[in-house]
């Protein structure tokens, strides 16, 4: 189907789930090339539909008024996880949180990414919501993004004129603001192969034990030497304590080349605390969040250290 046929077969909707909304056009392209052409043709007022758990709610509340909605769900390559690549693993943007949590390949290689996906919302939300939507929504509280930052993930972005690859930590500009251009589509998330003796963890603090947006989220990825004593690589990233999902390079640098002793772990946790820039809102004060960054980072570093030692003993 070419672009003109897509345009000829468009639907115009005024209601979505029984809610009255502003009129919008609806497209359901069957291929990536058609979706890219539609995005370029429709301009900045178009909205891309992945899982819809954010977009549909925003439209029902009249917080967002797209002139057209482009449904990406018929693009089959967006639904796949390919772990057979020489350079690492490629995750399609429409892979759901449930699939991510249950995937044997992801659980084996990146278990803390699976754990982060499992912490999102209800089962129904995880069945609908997608990793690509989670990224492109640009929420500083998104649970999958800190693990992806720690993993060194890169995003493939495609427009009608070019494809570019960007590190995930460079993708965010502010709350719900990203560097995705109006004619671009996220086509994949690349995760490189990890070195031996590398493990990660994601710890999430909410006001409840389940169905909660993070008050603070902490992801840690460590690589240790053959004796599991000295840190040879470390990445720390935070959620809900800055306008964007926050890498903490200074905190990670504290650990590299050092033995995983209490004083070093405490110093790294303090530096992560210093790198955070939280605000006060209904879910917690800035002071509380800052203190919890220290507590959770210290806990995460100790738990990852034990994970690696346990696997290799």
Features of this protein?
Uridine Diphospho-n-acetylenolpyruvylglucosamine Reductase, domain 3; 313 residues; single chain; alpha+beta; 5-stranded antiparallel sheet; 3 domains; 15 strands; 12 helices; Enolase-like, domain 1; 4-stranded mixed sheet; Uridine Diphospho-n-acetylenolpyruvylglucosamine Reductase, domain 2
Description:
The strands form four sheets. Strands 5-6-11-7-8 form a five-stranded antiparallel β-sheet. By secondary structure, it is of the alpha+beta class. It has three domains: 69 residues, Uridine Diphospho-n-acetylenolpyruvylglucosamine Reductase, domain 2, CATH 3.30.43.10; 117 residues, Uridine Diphospho-n-acetylenolpyruvylglucosamine Reductase, domain 3, CATH 3.30.465.10; 111 residues, CO dehydrogenase flavoprotein, C-terminal domain (Enolase-like, domain 1). The model has no long low-confidence stretch (mean pLDDT 90). Helix 10 runs antiparallel to helix 11 and helix 11 runs antiparallel to helix 12. The radius of gyration is 20 Å and the shape is globular. A hairpin with a 6-residue loop joins strand 14 and strand 15.
Between the first and last Cα atoms, what is the distance in angstroms? 57 Å
- The count of DSSP E runs of length 2 or more, i.e. the number of strands, is 15
How do the helices and strands follow one another from N- to C-terminus? HEEHEHEEEHHHHHHEEEEEEEEEHHH
Query: What shape does the CA trace take?
Result: globular
Helix/strand structural class: alpha+beta
DSSP strand (E) fraction?
25-35%
Level-1 CATH class name of the largest domain: Alpha Beta
Mean pLDDT over all positions: 90
CATH topology of the largest domain: Uridine Diphospho-n-acetylenolpyruvylglucosamine Reductase, domain 3
Q: How many domains make up the coordinates?
A: 3
Radius of gyration: 20 Å
Low-pLDDT runs: none
What does the main sheet amount to? 5 strands, antiparallel
Q: How are strands sequenced across the largest beta sheet?
A: 5-6-11-7-8
- The level of helicity is 25-40%
The DSSP helix count reads: 12
């Amino acid at each position: 189907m070419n672009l003109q046929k897509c345009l000829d077969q468009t639907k115009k909707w005024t209601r979505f789930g029984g809610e009255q909304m502003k009129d919008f056009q609806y497209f359901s392209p069957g291929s990536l090339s058609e979706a890219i052409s539609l995005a370029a043709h429709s301009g900045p007022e178009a909205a891309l539909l992945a899982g819809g758990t954010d977009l549909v709610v925003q439209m029902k509340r009249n917080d967002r008024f797209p002139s057209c909605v482009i449904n990406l769900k018929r693009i089959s390559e967006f639904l796949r996880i390919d772990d057979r690549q020489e350079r690492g693993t490629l995750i399609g943007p429409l892979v759901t949180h449930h699939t991510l949590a249950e995937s044997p390949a992801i659980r084996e290689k990146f278990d803390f990414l699976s754990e982060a996906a499992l912490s999102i919302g209800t089962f129904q939300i995880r069945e609908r919501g997608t990793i690509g939507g989670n990224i492109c929504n640009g929420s500083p509280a998104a649970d999958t993004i800190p693990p992806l930052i720690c993993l060194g993930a890169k995003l493939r972005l495609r427009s009608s004129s070019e494809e570019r690859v960007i590190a995930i930590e460079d993708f965010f500009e502010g709350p719900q603001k990203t560097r995705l251009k109006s004619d671009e589509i996220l086509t994949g998330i690349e995760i490189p192969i990890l070195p031996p003796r590398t493990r990660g963890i994601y710890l999430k603090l909410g006001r409840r034990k389940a169905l909660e947006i993070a008050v603070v989220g902490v992801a840690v990825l460590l690589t240790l030497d053959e004796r599991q004593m000295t840190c040879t690589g470390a990445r720390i990233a935070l959620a809900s304590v800055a306008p964007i999902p926050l890498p903490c390079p200074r905190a990670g640098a504290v650990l590299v080349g050092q033995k995983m002793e209490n004083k070093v772990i405490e110093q790294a946790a303090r530096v992560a605390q210093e790198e955070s820039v939280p605000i006060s809102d209904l879910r917690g004060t800035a002071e509380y969040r800052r203190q919890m960054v220290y507590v959770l980072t210290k806990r995460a570093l100790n738990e990852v250290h034990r994970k690696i030692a346990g696997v290799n003993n």
